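Key idea: predict the complex, not the pieces.
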Amino acid sequence: MQTETIRTVWWSDEDGEAVALLDQSRLPHETVTIRCRAEQEVADAIVTLKVRGAPAIGVTAAFGVALGLRHALPKVHSVVEARAALERICAELRRTRPTAVNLFWAIERMRQRVLATLETPDGLQTAGDVALAEAQAIADEDAAACRAMGRFGAALIADGDVLLTHCNAGALATAGWGTALAPLREAHQQGKRIRVFVDETRPVLQGARLTAWELQREGIPLTLITDNMAAHFMRRGGIRAIFVGADRIAANGDVANKIGTYGLAVLAQAHQIPFYVVAPRSTIDLSLPSGEAIPIEQRNPDEVTHIQGIPIAPEGITAANPAFDVTPHTSISAIITEAGIARAPYDESLPLLFAEPIAGKA
Amino acid sequence: MQTETIRTVWWSDEDGEAVALLDQSRLPHETVTIRCRAEQEVADAIVTLKVRGAPAIGVTAAFGVALGLRHALPKVHSVVEARAALERICAELRRTRPTAVNLFWAIERMRQRVLATLETPDGLQTAGDVALAEAQAIADEDAAACRAMGRFGAALIADGDVLLTHCNAGALATAGWGTALAPLREAHQQGKRIRVFVDETRPVLQGARLTAWELQREGIPLTLITDNMAAHFMRRGGIRAIFVGADRIAANGDVANKIGTYGLAVLAQAHQIPFYVVAPRSTIDLSLPSGEAIPIEQRNPDEVTHIQGIPIAPEGITAANPAFDVTPHTSISAIITEAGIARAPYDESLPLLFAEPIAGKA
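Result:
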């Protein structure tokens, strides 16, 4: 049943060091690997959605910090200069996208690890290798977290279930099996017969292009729908549960995720369909009391007025393009993490997930 | 303020008799008039969405009956043969699309008028002209109905209101000002400053292509959004009311309309936003007790997997393409017609709208 693993982001030593990415902007029609040879190229790949998905951009940024540092260190003459280079690299990568917290979490974890290393006697010599090892650890932990989320989430799926997912919270959004798609993969491998409605997820069509591609490879039966069909199939299509990922989760359980998630959650509630958010703990931002404070990225309106470069609307009109929305915790049935399943009240259950610390976290 | 009227469908005598249509499948990039010279061409234009919108396809089919009959009558030798030709023409046009009842209503009105004419002494000679006059009357009444719906609906719009509409229920969907867009046009001409969120309306993008084009011509400020952004802007965008059209309204007030309408109605209810359906009485089908019995057209899944001919999903996947959904009357704040505004209980209020009969109706 298991197909070849999808590689989303990895460290490459072929022909010089690089952060390698499967270019997701060209899927599903072409599978092209790009090699970023400088942190600016990594940042650009994140901005242009060549890599996307909260955990995946965290891992990519971590490799980007390692790459930038390994280029910078041979040219610096002091720890002070090394620190300055590190800060510049981190700032460059932080600027890419504002909403997903995994990006900031991964950059900060890399930064702390490198700063601590630079304090050691041979720090200038070892920091580059330490940084690469830390980035690889973040990637490996993400893959392990995906499997754990898959196991926890699959327990909520019964044989014969019809499910719905939005955007792509799959292998392409992580360094492993995915977040929202991990329970589906796990259930499928356990032999449960599931069928998945896939929202196409305008404007960038991550559902149609990426999730459909992943599920098709995996042999999981899917039906692609436009986003506005979801309510119809909730009422008439026998949908039993909805699984989505997250870009940032506030302390009260409010969830920022791909635009359209909020509407699905309200509709799920109206149809008494469980609405599950699947995300690693690195997505949880306990420093924010609620989702109101999560910055929502406003992307170029051309993504709405054009599809694959072709205009679909009259010239000169105004379009809005918020990339994310915020779903209040009151519309979320459970948050599934690698450390277990949290349910309301989230302000109590989410902190408990951190009883066992994330590796590498202070 | 008033711009040149949009002509959607009309009878043309230039270079031979024809049903003329503005080819909506090519808007907004090209404004091309097509001339249908036989009823088969009219039917094909309806199937391929060159003309769409419940009232507009009713008017188009009426002209199609007239066209077909005027071609057939010179070749028949008896009233029996004329009736057979009429039935064949009506059947051809009825087959085009199953959901909007205006199509069947208009064809049946034409059929009855022609059958009655054929009973008269010089029926074979006059039926062609009678049919054309009847079709033109249907078009003229539709235009008048649009203005009346505009006046009734505009009373529900206040200066400064932010509104939302779905699909295209505008001039392009009627032989006049539109259904859902008529109150917006009327309010705008009354000097009320409104702003309109326009759902792009996948898969065929009638919102992005047609409604945006109409509002832009009219100088009404609009913001184009993807369908999945509607909930976000209901919560954060200050939307004060939602106006949509209808393809069929059952006796209990259930409404079939463009896919996505049902989800919007549920979301509107959750956000306590009034949800208005605007449609002429020819859209009301009192023979159906509820929306459950309305046939939902399933269109080619290629409309979902391709946009303007370009594939957006992996080859070989399954996609669903219900063109309509059904909104239960419990989610509808009011139904605005040319004879007044109906509110719940609709099984009582809808029949009252027919106290003053539709012209030409028995």
